[in-house]
Design brief:
By secondary structure, this protein is α/β, with parallel strands linked by helices. Helices cover about 25% and strands about 30% of the residues. A hairpin with a 5-residue loop joins strand 9 and strand 10.
Length: about 300
């Protein structure tokens, strides 16, 4: 990862090679971002969950969709999926600017744009407001962690693949250090912890695996947790350790997947997309499984 890492929309059109995806754009005072919106073929107006997917550095929204295969799983399970696209005008490496303080706050910078396009989709489609999720890879994973901290009223759960804890760096130079060694200071604890699923390769030389540990630690609520550990192996031969953290009352749970021998790539992804490892467990399918077990309770924030 190099530094990964409210006007109406334009008229929707079909995205190239993805007939169920519409190309759209959202703008507000902080800026404008294009995004693709995948709509499953069975959509007839009934409430559907929504997942916002944030790509990594050097990727595009379409590349990310192809590599993760999230459209295919969403078609099977009945999800809407949005893929915001970070332009080079915002970051030369097409990275979400997760490491800048102005992009780590509610109603400011990139978080306000991502929250705004999420709300716009919710207003234009029949989205189940209790089942809205955000996930990302690398810089996108770090941005997803920021969204979980800033907007726990919108998102019910978060997925972080090869990413970092929210607010773990405040400048470009600190970001590179954090990617190599983890945050020197413990990232701030979530005020309203969201259920979080983290994937990270233990041979990741781009974003140190300690960042995955810090991301899951950030999401933990205070108090005692039940911990279960499962050792497994994917159909492609990759060993993994899956740790399940659950509050005794079952109100909150999270999962941490350590992928043994894996580097900086989306597990189980399709080789036609960038930064994918087809040998790994299917992170897209596992994320949607996890998301489907978590819905917001409607509490105030």
């Amino acid at each position: 990862m190099t530094l990964l890492a409210n006007a109406p929309t334009t008229m929707p059109g079909l995205a190239i090679d993805r007939p169920r995806a519409m190309t759209r754009r959202f703008s507000n005072a902080a800026g404008s971002r294009a995004y693709d919106l995948f709509v499953p073929s069975g959509y007839e107006g009934a409430p559907l969950p929504l997942v916002v997917m944030l790509h990594g550095s050097s990727q595009s929204s379409r590349d990310f969709a192809i590599g993760t295969g999230m459209d295919r799983v969403a078609e099977e399970q009945g999800f809407l999926v949005a893929y915001p696209d970070q332009p080079r005008s915002a970051n030369i490496a097409k990275s979400w600017n997760w490491f800048r303080s102005e992009n780590q706050k509610r109603d400011e910078g990139e978080p306000s744009i991502l929250a705004g396009l999420t709300r716009e989709i919710m207003s234009e489609f029949n989205v189940d407001p209790a089942r809205v999720y955000v996930a990302g890879l690398s810089a996108g994973g770090a941005a997803a962690a920021v969204m979980a901290l800033a907007y726990p009223d919108i998102y019910a759960a978060v997925g972080i693949h090869s990413g970092l804890a929210g607010g773990s760096a405040g400048s470009t130079s600190v970001a590179f250090s954090t990617m190599r060694r983890g945050a020197l200071l413990r990232p701030r604890q979530a005020t309203h912890p969201l259920p979080t699923i983290v994937f990270h390769g233990d041979r990741d030389t781009t974003v140190s695996p300690v960042n995955g540990d810090q991301a899951i630690a950030q999401a933990k609520p205070d108090g005692e947790l039940n911990i279960a550990t499962i050792e497994g192996r994917s159909s492609g031969g990759m060993a993994y350790t899956r740790t399940i953290l659950t509050e005794p009352d079952g109100m909150w749970s999270s999962e941490q997947w350590v992928l043994h021998g894996a580097g900086h790539a989306w597990a189980g992804g399709h080789p036609s997309g960038s930064h994918t490892d087809p040998a790994g467990p299917d992170a897209s399918r596992e994320m949607l499984r996890f998301f489907m077990t978590h819905a917001k309770d409607g509490g105030a924030y």
